[in-house]
Amino acid sequence: MTIEATTGPDVQATGQPFTLPEAPGDLKRRLDAGQAIAWYEAVEIPTYEPHEPSTFPMYLDHRVYQGSSGRVYPLPFTERIDSAPTMRRWSAIHVENQYIRVMILPELGGRIHVAYDKTTDYDFFYRNNVIKPALVGLAGAWMSGGVEFNWPQHHRPATFLPVESTVENHDDGSVTVWCSDHDPFARMRGTHGIHLEPDTSTIRLDVRLHNRTSLPQTFLWWANVAVRVHDDYQSFFPEDVRFVADHARRAITAFPQADRPYYGVDYQERAAETPGADRIDYFRNIPVPTSYMVVDTDHEFFGGFDHAVGAGFVHWADRRVAPGKKQWTWGNAPFGQAWDRLLTDADGPYVELMAGVYTDNQPDFSWIAPGESKRFSQYWYPIPAIGVAHEATPDAAIHVEHDSVFSAALAVTSPQSGARLRVLSPAGDEVFADSADLVPGAPWKVTVHVPYAAGMTIALESSDATVLVEWTAPVEFEGAAEPWTATAPPAPAEVGSVDELFYIGLHLVQYRHPSRSPLPYWTEAIRRDPWDSRVLTALAELAFRAADYEVAFEHAERALARITGRNGNPRHTETLYLLGLIESRRGNDRAARTAFAKASWDAAFVTPAGLEMARQSARSGRFEAALHDLDELDAVASDDRRRGPLQVVVLRRLGRHAEAHAILERLRTQEPLNPTLAYLDSGQLPTDGHLALDVALELGQSGEDDAALEVLAAVSRMGANGSGNVGPLAHYHRAVILGRLGRTADAAAERAAARSSDRRWCFPAGLDDHDALLAAVREEGDPVAASLLGMLLFDVGRREDALELWEDAIRAGSEEPLLHRNAGLASYNIAHDDARAVEHYDRAIELDPDDARLLFERDQLAARLGETDEERLERLTLRYDVVVARDDLVVEYAELLVRTGQPEDALALLEERSFQPWEGGEGRVLGAWDHARAALGLPIVDPPLSLGEGRPLYAAPAARRADGEVDYFATSLPDLLLFSRE
């Protein structure tokens, strides 16, 4: 796997800001004329490059990550970062107007990396002057700084992957930079646009999330804003925020003064020793890694303010869809400072002030229907020296003081000539007024010569009497009601009703719970009522997602028997729609169409069912019927972005090229980064193989077999990148189309090409990959297809089937380290065959003796099989040159040395190495170091910096209970849990 970027020799990080380029001449003239501008220009930044990811798939479905599932498959997993930087040229997009400057990195998820206030000479987002990832991300590498746009879960799975991008200039002098990709798991499309207008200091983020799949999906959206902090940096929430909550609402505390122990810290006790130490709105007072999220507010803003500099920022969003307001910190103590060193060279600590849309907690997922698009906007702007905002809108912010003197400080985001400040009594009478000419970056401070009273209002109005911001003095009240905290659900047998059993299972699915399955709850529900339609439909969907079409069909049929037993026209047609999808995959097109047609009687499913029927017509060559289906949808259904490419294809096949061209032009304006539209327009394909494969599959769904074959041929020649390798899969998909066209010899040649292709990082996923690989296994007994299909099935939970495929491939003569490793893992977890597991792992190591992950997993297996410390140490010592390639293996080796009476060697080994801990796995290296010192009779002291860890001041909440079970509310458990018997 190669990274397409130019790198220079090793460099010594200086801690100095990297240089932002000046705007090119013609754009500089437009900027001077008052317009907003944007341009592409690479920037050289010292970069610590991630190593190549492991070539083995990581089945981490039991891993707890940010409180939800840490499942990473099919993404490759990165386990090491370079220890020294190189100078790398990063593609960058620069956006600027007269007030602010923004830099976006499309090669890193389209994140904002720099947001600079020209009026105050202040980076209002945290500017990290190195690209220094640490092992924090879902797939390994993650970096701090700027704004990370997290979806469909946190952190963004594609945070260290490139996005497609384009610049759109508007007639009004504004500019939008669009970034778009398909999420690596469900392949939904996420597009965000960073928008600057000419005369405002506001960054507007326009987001479009589109479920381009045929099934409902879960998602969340958190914009993760980092800000540089110190003792005088204050985070602020609206004044009516009385309480904040931990992840999953497992705990709460008062805000801004914590009134109880939180994350193990007794803030009241600390405040008794140091007045003000219970104020958790100041970074300086939080000694441990801590999250807190607003429980409830009637307001739509929050932000942070740097009292030392006299500047800060405000976030604003419509709370109807954007209630999420959160702070996260590593903590102001040695533990957090160790993470600061791992993530930057000289730019100091930061906190994250995160803004959630369709979510107010983590993990907290919402649903997006098939074909649905969700659109929303978020706003950020810098504020000058007004202090923390007590009210804010996208137009202005206000800070109010009412101690000995009643005063207000205001900041605007655009020039306001003749702005007027009005103070109204609680009865609504004007009791004070003043006016001024205001501009961004210059605070307006006014002393109000009237008595302060609860319920009075201060309003800033424009010259035409439009209210820019309005603050009302809060009415004091005693004892805000205590918010609820979450509880773990009871065991299935203890749940009182089938209804509750269904909803507990649905919650576990929706929130992607990492350690609890919905199946025990739904199985208990079916035991009590074998015909419960909701549960049967949910079970059918689970089976369908796992490509177990026959089981899915049985559940759906039983559900429909209950639903239609007395009502042939059900109110809700979810089950009928699902049955249509199942029958389509089973090859029963007539039955599928019948189910889709009836499903479309329900307004909730008219859009997805109608699209499936139109696609079905197009695939069968009935293009007039397909166009009729689409025309009907245009008349009755909501917007579905999947319809446009299909409409263009159908019109072209009918010879109506002028209409197709007009529609395509309009669609390209609306969706400039839609890869299928780009291909239909110019034949241009994305450079990312997964995106290009999505284009081919969409063309195939539209009946464009020739075009799909052409795109798949191009995909097969694309190399691997950070998201994996789909080259072999492209050959198998071509074979399916060629076989359907009757070109059996060509289909066989494609499968042969797949078998001879480079399959590193080829991790198939999704129903289309499943069907293509299954066809190869059934038609040719293809051992490579069997190996690949086994990986897909193991990931979706069909693990017995996966092991059977892997053993079949081995019996057919396939000898690959990856295949034996996978079979060894499944032999232990699924078959409980210890001897076979050892046999497979030993054979994998024999085939690839230099792979440190294989040796690490073999040692983990040995520990679970009860091998002695001496046996394990002997095996590792024989391959010491491989052991030192991995931090975790070195830690295991050191612990074995201590337990076998060699603590001096263990201590020397640990102290001569620079470690890279992983988030949630903190303490492993430090623990081994402490154990070695204790065995030598040495005292507990602060660790050397080379360990990469700081000693925590307080014990974090335990992720595992005393009985070994993962706590229901665990938010971080890094154990790979590869070896977990089922």
UniProtKB/TrEMBL annotation:
SUPFAM superfamilies: TPR-like (SSF48452). Coiled coil: none annotated. Gene3D superfamilies: 2.70.98.10, Tetratricopeptide repeat domain (1.25.40.10). Residues 72-383 form the DUF5107 domain. It comes from the Bacteria. InterPro entries: DUF5107, GH-type_carb-bd, TPR-like_helical_dom_sf. This is DUF5107 domain-containing protein. It comes from Microbacterium pumilum.
